Amino acid sequence: MMRLLALLLFLPSMAASAQSVPKLVPDVSQREINIQSGFTGAEMLLFGAIIYPRGVAPEGQVDVAVVLRGPTRAVTLREKQNIAGIWINVDSTDFRSVPAYYAIASSRPLREIIDSKTAAIYELGLERLQLSPSGEVDAAEQKRFVDGLVDLNRRNGLFRQEAGTVEITDQVLYRARLNIPSSVPVGTYTAETLLIRNGRVIVADDNVQVRIRKTGFEQLVTIMAQDFAFFYGAMAVLVSLLLGWFAGYVFQRL
Amino acid sequence: MDIYLPIANLSVNALVIILLGGGVGVLSGMFGVGGGFLTTPLLIFYGIPPAVAAASASTQVTGASVSGVFAHMRRGGVDFQMGAVLVFGGIFGTAAGAAIFEILEALGQIDTVINILYVVMLGGIGGLMAKESLTSVRASRAGKPVPAAKRRHHPLVANLPIRWRFYRSGLYISPLAPLILGFITGIMTMLLGVGGGFIMVPAMLYLLGMGAQVVVGTSLFQILFVTMASTMMHSLTTKAVDIVLAVFLLIGSVIGAQIGARLAQRMSPDYLRLFLAVIVLLVAIRMALGLGWRPDEIYTLQAL
Question: What is the pTM assigned to this prediction?
Answer without folding.
Answer: 0.81
